[in-house]
Write a structure and sequence with these properties.
Layout: E1 6-9, H1 13-24, E2 29-32, E3 46-48, H2 54-60, H3 64-70, E4 78-81, E5 87-91, E6 101-103, H4 104-112, E7 120-121, E8 126-131, E9 138-142, E10 147-151, E11 153-156, E12 174-185, H5 192-199, E13 203-208, E14 211-217, E15 223-230, H6 239-246, H7 248-259, H8 265-272, E16 275-285, E17 299-301, H9 304-307, H10 316-334, H11 339-368, H12 375-389
The chain binds flavin-adenine dinucleotide.
Pfam family, one: FAD_binding_3
Keywords: FAD, Flavoprotein, Monooxygenase, Oxidoreductase
GO molecular function, one term: monooxygenase activity
Length: about 400
């Protein structure tokens, strides 16, 4: 059996969209994914997919209709509250097509349905990527010891801690100082009706005193709830905190008394009534000054692997899908005999886009986690909305 010339690490949004586009152009490839099955997905939640980037990429992949069938166009409304529980700003989706939401699970499902099943190796956690000293081709080593050899290009699409990054840069993601901790309000919750009247079909975020409570409606009408806190990087790995996270009701008591006491019950009721496992997400971003490496033959990074960002610009998945589109277009243009030019051309688009996203997210994060939040955020977005109205 001949070895496909392109290895893709990771079956997240960026890796799967690249696989789909290569499949459409009959370019052989293999995806290595650490999850054991297609139904395993480490991260839940919902993603807003933007018309000019994420949706454009899905359209070019012939997946826009499948996306539209799953997307929630009524979920584009976001209301920002202060800690007194008063609505300070309402962000309505600017137009009907602009930024609909899709559950992460649904996005993965529709991408998986669009690729060749045999192109994905499940349960394939990558341990290392290296260049063969014999013929300079690329090798992918899995944690179980298997080594796949002979690739012309390895595409790191394996997220924040990609195994391909060290081949192109010494830089690493830097901790932002903030965690999100997530849980759920299921449809069966006695509080669900109240959650619906507060959050509706879209999302809310209450912010102040360097902390946040956020909630978003999911496809099954449950709500995902996240609290944002300034915490040390290894907070969830410290034994006492790991124990705290294991017991949702103890964790909720801790959050309500230690972190959100004095906040309006209108918003803290979201914490009080959340259920299920609590998961901690320390938030990282690549330093913007690191995003300009020399092209390395045989290696490309896309999505979070290239430019993980804090999520405050809502651009992460859009940038990731756009990366996959532009890398695929360059591979098609330059052909398998000149993959280095393809990667080099792709990187010229990717670096400025990534720097803009990380910079915007950092600025939004500073406003949303300010002591007097949401004041600054409301001022900036109100001015922006007024300027748009005036044309
Ligand atoms: C809490 C949170 C909220 C977010 N909210 C938003 C939002 O509202 N809007 C938005 O646009 N973005 C958001 N993001 C960012 C968004 O999730 C990412 O930008 C996007 O998922 C990146 O896609 P990706 O395919 O590059 O990487 P990922 O989604 O991280 O996928 C990587 C894939 O690689 C696999 N993998 C990892 N390591 C290995 C390995 N060693 N070997 C093999 N496989 C591996 C993983 O299992 C996964 O399937 C959020 C992120 C977080 C953490």
């Amino acid at each position: 059996m001949s070895i496909p010339p392109i290895a893709i690490l990771g079956a997240g949004p960026s890796g799967l969209l690249l696989a789909r586009l290569l499949h459409l152009h009959r370019i052989p490839h293999t995806v290595f994914e650490r999850d054991a099955h297609r139904s395993d997905i480490g991260q839940g939640g919902t993603l807003d997919v933007h018309a000019e980037t994420g949706q454009l990429a899905l359209k070019k992949a012939g997946l826009l209709e499948a996306f539209k069938a799953k997307a929630r166009y009524d979920a584009q409304r976001m209301v920002i509250f202060n800690k007194e529980g008063e609505a300070a700003l309402t962000l309505d989706g600017t137009d009907g097509e602009g930024r609909p939401e899709i559950d992460r699970r649904d996005l993965r499902g529709l991408l998986l349905d669009s690729v060749r099943e045999e192109s994905i190796v499940w349960g394939a956690k990558v341990a290392a990527v290296r260049r063969s000293p014999v013929d300079q081709s690329m090798e992918v080593e899995l944690v179980d010891g298997r080594v796949h050899r002979g690739f012309g290009l390895v595409v790191g699409a394996d997220g924040t801690w990609t195994k391909a990054r060290e081949l192109v840069t010494k830089a690493k993601p830097v901790y932002s100082g903030y965690h999100y901790i997530t849980a759920m309000i299921p449809k069966t919750s006695p509080y669900h009706t109240k959650a619906t009247s507060l959050v509706g079909a879209g999302g809310i975020m209450a912010t102040g005193s360097r902390r946040q409570i956020a909630a978003q409606r999911m496809t099954d009408d449950s709500y995902s709830v996240a609290i944002g806190l300034a915490l040390p990087e290894n907070w969830s790995r410290q034994t006492a905190n790991a124990e705290l996270l294991k017991n949702t009701s103890t964790f909720k008591d801790w959050a309500m008394t230690e972190k959100f006491s004095g906040w309006s019950t209108r918003v803290t009721d979201l914490i009080k009534n959340s259920e299920g496992a609590c998961r901690a997400w320390p938030l990282y971003a690549m330093p913007v000054e690191s995003l300009s490496w020399e092209t390395v033959p045989g290696v490309a990074l896309i999505g979070d692997a290239a430019h993980v960002s804090t999520p405050f610009a809502g651009e992460g998945v859009n940038c990731s899908l756009h990366d996959a589109l532009q890398l695929a277009e360059q591979i098609v243009k330059h052909g398998l005999d000149d993959l280095t030019s393809a990667v080099s051309e792709y990187e010229k688009f990717m670096f400025p886009r990534a720097i803009a996203m990380i910079t915007e997210s950092q600025a939004n994060g500073e406003m949303l986690f300010a002591e007097d939040a949401p004041r600054g955020f409301v001022e900036v977005f109100s001015a922006f909305a007024n300027a748009e109205k005036q044309g």
